[in-house]
Amino acid sequence: MQRKTGTIDDIQAAPARPPVELDGDQTAIQAVVSVPAPADSRTRPRGSAPEPTSPRALNIRQITHGGITWVDIVHPGQAEIDWLRRNYDFHPLHLDDTLSKIQRPKLDDADDYTFLVMHFPVYSKLVRVTTPSEVDIFIGANYLITVHAGNLKPLTRFFKQCMEDPAARSAAMSR
User: How far apart are CA 86 and CA 105, in angstroms?
Assistant: First the structure.
């Protein structure tokens, strides 16, 4: 058996095959040849990188009631950690822990605040597996800061409820 070789141009220039005639209930499967687009049409021309847009908005929400501020940070990035660094006097290792993907649960008591790392189970219906979701918490005399990935529905729902409902905010944040 001799193999026939050719180029992509040969494949593209090949005439279409006539449809196959079948008996009764038979079906035909026709092979389709997929040819990649030329490289120059798949890549961006040099020097045409998209113009940088204005800086992204920080993923920081705040509620203040009765002298207590709850700061909720969802999907923290370096910009959010820099904001914490500028506005609070937290230990640099605690700020690094908030960006760490895998952190063991812990409780650190600093001079003027307490830092907690907690894990809560999140069940995925799609893959039927429970995985831990981390929440980093800073507690000070007049503030509570939560840092998380946003997949803990009870926490996000509770923060939203405190934002929107003054009675819930008063009940949750009164001393």
Answer: 25
Do 18 and 45 touch, CB atoms closer than 8 A? no
Contact 43, 53 (CB under 8 A): no
**Rounded Cα distance, 141 and 123, in Å:** 34
Q: How far apart are alpha carbons 79 and 171 in whole angstroms?
A: 32
Helix axes 166-173, 153-164, angle to 10 degrees: 110
Q: Tens digit of pLDDT for each residue in 86-135?
A: 999 999 999 999 998 878 999 999 999 999 999 999 998 999 999 999 99
140, burial (CB in 10 Å: exposed 0-12, middle 13-18, buried 19+): middle
> What is the per-residue DSSP string for 41-77?
HHSPPTT-PPPP-SPPPP-EEEEEETTEEEEEEES--
- For residue 53, what pLDDT is reported? 54
For 55, residues 6+ apart whose C-beta sits below 8 A from its C-beta are: 79
The pLDDT score that the predictor gives to residue 6 is 52
